[in-house]
């Protein structure tokens, strides 16, 4: 049915530090992931040794007897050779379907419980959001009914390159990026990075912005499909009323 946040807060506006905070419940100055690079502790050996054993899925697994399932984008540098490659499966996960490195929709590699599986560009078998939906449904079908379960599904959508499924590529043609009161206004009293922005923007820049915003919405239609399928499966198996869903 959708979700609207009237206010939203993140521990960091950077991808990897924010993901690390979700997993650990810590601020970046405590888990020490400071940017999206190995040098910044993103999926580094130090992260694996110190933080991964204490993520909340690891605790659910070791102390509470949960079956734990991960599918999607983990940390940006996951799968890097210097970080143990795709053979590395973080502690605490019973089932592991993790994307190598950063966001993609086609032509990517997954770590399937530590073994690499390459995907191409055939929509019916390779479109990542749908692949994540299918492996998640398989988990719900084949998991044990005698243990509680935890699933984390981390779709790269709506991250760039914003590749929508074929059936959604013409959606939202009349949608444009929000024109708030600070839209296209020079940030005179802002951070130096923001002050560097050229204003007013060129028509091509505005067109790019609107197109990116539209494509993000298009990619999220497949995420809607994923959520709907999972909710219906939980309802069908009689588990929906006993399951918490966090977004």
TrEMBL record:
Keyword Nucleotidyltransferase on entry: no
Family assignment from sequence similarity: Belongs to the sulfatase family.
Occurrences of domain Sulfatase N-terminal (ranges): 2-247
Protein name: Glucosamine (N-acetyl)-6-sulfatase
Pfam families attached to this UniProt entry: Sulfatase (PF00884)
Any one Gene Ontology molecular-function term assigned to this protein's record: hydrolase activity
Alphabetized UniProt keyword annotations: Glycoprotein, Hydrolase, Signal
Taxonomic source organism: Homo sapiens (Human)
Segments traversing the membrane: none
Listed cofactors: Ca(2+)
Top-level taxon: Eukaryota
SUPFAM superfamilies assigned to the protein according to its UniProt record, in alphabetical order: Alkaline phosphatase-like
PANTHER family (UniProt xref): N-ACETYLGLUCOSAMINE-6-SULFATASE, N-ACETYLGLUCOSAMINE-6-SULFATASE FAMILY MEMBER
Cited InterPro entries: Alkaline_phosphatase_core_sf (IPR017850), Sulfatase_CS (IPR024607), Sulfatase_N (IPR000917)
